[in-house]
Amino acid sequence: MDINTKNLMKNAYRITSKKGFTALRIRVPGGHLPVRHLKTIKDIADRFGNGTVHITTRQGFEIPGIPMDKLDEVNRAVAPIIRDLEQAIGVEIDNPEKGYPAAGTRNVTACIGNRVCPFANTDTTKLAQRIEALIYPNHYHVKIAVAGCPNDCIKARMQDLGIIGMVRPVQDRDRCIGCQACVETCQNKVTGAISFDNFQVKRDPGLCIGCGECILSCPALAWYRGGKFFRLLIMGRTGKKDPRMAQTFINWLKEEPLLHIISNTYRYIDKHINKNLAKEHVGYILDRTGYKVFKKEILDKVELNPEARVAERLEFKGSPYVLH
After folding, report:
1. Please, are residues 107 and 27 in contact by the beta-carbon 8 Å criterion?
2. Burial of 63 (0-12, 13-18, 19+ CB in 10 A)
3. What is the DSSP string of 160-201?
4. Are residues 273 and 231 in the same domain?
5. Element of type H or E holding 288
6. Alpha-carbon distance 83 to 81, whole Å?
7. Which of 49, 115, 226, 319 could form a disulfide with 170 if both were Cys (CB 3.0 to 4.6 A apart)?
8. Is 292 helix (H, G, I), strand (E, B) or coil?
9. What is the mean pLDDT of residues 244-269?
């Protein structure tokens, strides 16, 4: 068969080690899937694939063993999932019967969030779906993940854009009984932002990472959630060349400016990407243009909330493969 591999990959299929066969990547924005679609995935794997699926690190499904002459049939079979998981959240896909229109920007991943987890400070699934509707379909290779709290179960620090839910703890002094449960929790498990001085509990805003552990630990309910915020981490990556952890770009960011920044990131990529390469990760673009240019363009026309704090500089520390 004469197959255009570039178009194949844009249609969310993978080039595999077995000639004449491919694998379909199914997106699951935020990692949240109505169970009725499991039957559709099973049917596609049984009818067109080799009867197996691979659960990817990006919370999607990959169906291997699909003959390349069956792509039209497979695309029609996966259309109900595209309608329910993509179009239903506002993603513009003209014809789901033709399958996925792009695969460059990877599935937006998320931890289970505050729908289930008591530590989570935000509805990660909802935010991931808002981001998916904002940025998909797109061919630029970008990885985005949403964590509900600084435990970072989704590994936001390994993403191009990693988002961590934060909460601003507010104290009701009239309810405080001075038991110091919040102090012990923060000192032992977090950053030591909570202290006890002159018979009063105090919070150091400079040390507070917005995890909410003090709120959860207080038996008198003297701490409460005073607002939802996000930490935005940027340019973490794996791969063969200079893997590294993402660094904090902005702390105490509200949701709307966060979404504006994500939109600006795609404009920045479009402006500066090396078009001579098959693909270029945004982290390498930042390395080339410099942080000053990146910051200026990413924050263009963004109305930051008063609490937001932007890093003056970033120092990335790689994890080289070569021993010294």
Report:
1. yes
2. buried
3. SEEEEEEEEEEE-TTT-----HHHHHHHHHS---EEEETTEE
4. yes
5. helix 282-289
6. 5
7. 226
8. helix
9. 97
pLDDT exceeds cutoff 90 at 282: yes
Domain count, the chain: 2
Cα separation, 146 vs 142, whole angstroms: 14
Structural domain boundaries, residue 151:
104-324
Strand 21-26 vs strand 61-67: parallel, antiparallel, or unpaired? antiparallel
Closest of 146, 144, 162 to residue 113, by C-alpha: 146
Give pLDDT tens digits for 53-93: 999 999 999 999 999 999 999 999 999 999 999 999 999 99
Of 6, 17, 15, nearest to 279 by C-alpha is 6
Q: Among 98, 119, 138, where does a domain finish?
A: 98
C-alpha 137/C-alpha 132 separation (Å) is 8
Determine the Cα angle at 271 with ends 270 and 276, to 5°.
75
92 burial via Cβ count (<10 Å: 0-12, 13-18, 19+): exposed
The residue among 75, 129, 137 whose CA lies nearest residue 102 is 137
